Amino acid sequence: MGYTAWILLTASLVGLSCGLIGVFLILRKMAMMADAISHTVLLGIVMAFLVTRELSGGHMLIGAIMAGLLTALLVQWFHSLGVQQDASIGVVFTTLFAVGVILISTKVGNAHLDVKHALMGEITFVPWNLVSLPWIGEIPEATFILSLVLAIVLLSILIFYKEWKITSFDPALAASLGIPVVLMHYLFMSLVSITTVAAFDAVGAIMVVAMLITPAAAAYMWTDRLSVMLLLSGTFGVFSAFVGYYVAVWLDTSISASMAFATGLVFMISFLCSPKHGLLAKYIRPFMVPSE
Amino acid sequence: MDVLKVDNLTASYRKNKVLADVSFRVQPGSLTGIVGPNGAGKSTLLKVMLDLHPRLSGTVSFFGSTLKKMKRRVGYVPQRGSVDWDFPTNALDVVMMGFYGKIGWLKWPTRIHREKAMDALSKMGMAEYADRQISQLSGGQQQRVFLARALVQEADLYFMDEPLAGVDAATERSIMTILKELKLMGKTVMVVHHDLQTVEDYFDHVLLLNRTVIGYGKTEEVFTKENVARAYGGALRWMRGETS
Amino acid sequence: MIAFLSINAQWVLFSTMILGMASGMIGTLAYWKRQSLMSDALSHAALPGVVIAFAILGVKNLSLMIGGAVISALLGALLIQWIRSSSRVKEDTAMGMILSVFFGLGIMLLTIVNRTAGGNQSGLDAFIFGQAASMIRTDLYMMLFLAFLVILVVFIGFKEWKLYLFDPEFAKGLGLSTRWMDNLYLGVLVLVIVIGIQAVGVILMSALLIIPAVSARYWTHSFKWMIMLSAFFGGASGMFGTLISTLGKGWPTGPFIVVSSSALFIISLLFGAQKGLLIKAVQFQMQKKELTQSWSANAVLKEGE
């Protein structure tokens, strides 16, 4: 497969996984948790390196997942101690991130980690980092991991659809029905961590946030049905990846950043033009003759 | 057998002790109104009984057993305020959520569930709104959808937190009709209620609560001028039929 | 001042202290407005403005870059407001979007600028991590001036801030223009963010705006004291952080300031007089004791019957 094709495939995988997870993320009002986790994974990666002395993808993945879970746990804990939700998030993620930066810049254990790369990612390098698989041959490591992640995401959503739906909509009722609300929360957070980490390598931390939140928000403008929202969000994610790539090539700029910006454009268009919930429709509606 | 047995229930909310040594026993088939002034602990009582809020002491037994074992037989209608109305879901969907506890992991709702849900909606007069997104419904309509959701749970003991708050007259009538039907079917219903005026019309039992139990029992016995005055700390001087 | 520090280091120490104080104060306002994370969103949103300002001038001019940052951040704030009020998208989602999309735009522009004008790469590093140690004297003067301005604004309008934050409806009734206060608050917030980014970078700026304020909460219920304490914690963090960072070669100031403020937070969480865990545990024990005492009192009564 050609170079461009690998990049587009990898980016599409990111768009899909993040788009799907993103729907529940915004409905649960946890958009900023995604932001938090995308920063704290840095600490996870550093810790993984310090412990294993290796820069391998697998170890970093585990370290990052643990960081994500730790973030969720700490935020929850502080919140239960009476700190406001977003203040909790703020305290936890800035502190963990700062610790990560300190570890790197004081060169504890000679961590040769490129912080910029961790934050910004650069999808241009993805096709060069290959891994050998039985039957498939050589494919980029990032693409492989992302495919796995997408499979996990799809499976999880299928399995926990009802539970995540009800715990997002009415947690009080869910608890009274015997649904393990807290378990569902942490399972979801784990999924967010896995997705963030996998997408990271391809598009970097900040862009992952864009992919997690914006396509879902755009989808929210078009439909009142959860299942349709999931479908649309994934589609918008993939679409943004493509648009972003070609714009980046045209302007000769960062592909990841371009994709992030593309999600914003998709949202703007949806925000303005969606017939159901878009702004223009709201203005035009009073002037339209009712058909009933 | 007591449907519900509460002993020495004590709980705090923030820094204040909002429930102190609450005890009472409920017989099957009763329709109880829980009344008391603001901050009396009425909502908290429901939450503590259902293990949705921590308790400092006390025990609660449902049908002679624990909540965990009897969960299927208990239904809860929380206050309307705690829900995200912009959620992409319609009225029918909300009612179907009432089945989620019973359906269990990995399974999906079936046609039968759907039919039952539509039945419940019809009962509440909401059948034609089945596919309406919930933010498009009025307060009264939303409450009816929540009642329908409670109905499909097919519980034997229902707890409802201010179901009549902020609803229109037609909805109030509709809800009370359903509650009386439930009673006729032998179900037990406990309702946190805010309007003293209607207590005698609606409920055959009353729980007067102001952090402790001022009184529990049949309405005509317990809902007296003196008890109400005690519950409301003497601030209430006027009751129906009284002047000054 | 402190003998073993160079003059420049002393200036940095002083500036970070003042910055910490200003952040602590504004952070308290943000906390009560329930917009603690807005600073994170706006910090990231400032990037495109900085890059554009740099690109237009071709030279690193601090005041113009601050200007660009302010415009960009304000634009972000307005968009968040617009999206939130005219659609069902919630505030946290809007913040996350502006944060990442604006930042993405910023990176796009920065990459283009770097490739064409041969601009310096370190611009981005400075933006993310701050460069307190390498600021020149005039930069510091500017920062100090702005920080003092912020402190003044909070100080002078103290009563008005209090009213505006706790009961805006009532405030309106009294004739206080909440619109005006909204804009003033936003303006001051953006100013602090933009100044602070120079010193401690984007991410860590949010920390300074959140952590001291939250820490102060555990010691007092009084708005006045919370602002003071928050300023104190912020200033202390700035000072300690900077001092610690001088201990190592090439250690960045920002993260150490953050970690200092976190340490203060943990201490406040545990020992805070009003809501600290220790106090709460003691109170809980006392409540339980009361309970058992009243039971035994009841038991005594019953036995006596």
How would you characterize this protein structure?
The complex is a heterotrimer of chains A (292), B (244) and C (305). Chain A has 292 residues and is an all-alpha fold. Chain A has a domain at 3-203: ABC transporter involved in vitamin B12 uptake, BtuC, CATH 1.10.3470. In chain A, 77% of the residues lie in helices and 3% in strands. Chain A contains eleven helices and two strands. Chain A has helices at 3-27, 31-52, 57-80, 85-105, 115-120, 141-169, 171-176, 181-220, 226-251, 255-273, 279-284; strands at residues 130-133, 137-140. Chain A has a two-stranded antiparallel sheet with strand order 1-2. In chain A, strand 1 (130-133) and strand 2 form a beta hairpin. The longest helix of chain A has 40 residues, at 181-220. The radius of gyration of chain A is 20 Å and the shape is globular. By secondary structure, chain B is of the alpha/beta class. Chain B has a single domain, classed as 3-Layer(aba) Sandwich (Rossmann fold), CATH 3.40.50. Chain B has helices spanning 42-49, 67-70, 91-96, 100-103, 111-123, 139-152, 169-184, 199-202, 219-222, 225-231; strands spanning 4-13, 16-26, 31-35, 57-62, 74-77, 157-161, 188-192, 205-210, 212-218. A six-stranded mixed β-sheet of chain B has the order 5-6-7-3-8-9, sandwiched between helices. In chain B, strand 1 (4-13) and strand 2 form a beta hairpin. In chain B, helix 5 packs across helix 6 and helix 6 (139-152) packs parallel to helix 7 (169-184). The longest helix of chain B has 16 residues, at 169-184. Chain C has 14 helices and no strands. Chain C is 82% helix and 0% strand. The longest helix of chain C is centred in the last third of the chain and has 28 residues, at 277-304. Chain C has helices spanning 7-32, 38-45, 47-57, 62-86, 91-117, 122-129, 137-156, 158-166, 168-173, 178-200, 202-217, 223-245, 253-271, 277-304. With 305 residues, chain C is an all-alpha fold. Chain C has a domain at 7-210: Orthogonal Bundle (ABC transporter involved in vitamin B12 uptake, BtuC). Classes of the chains: A mainly alpha (292), B alpha/beta (244), C mainly alpha (305). Chains in contact: A-B, A-C, B-C.
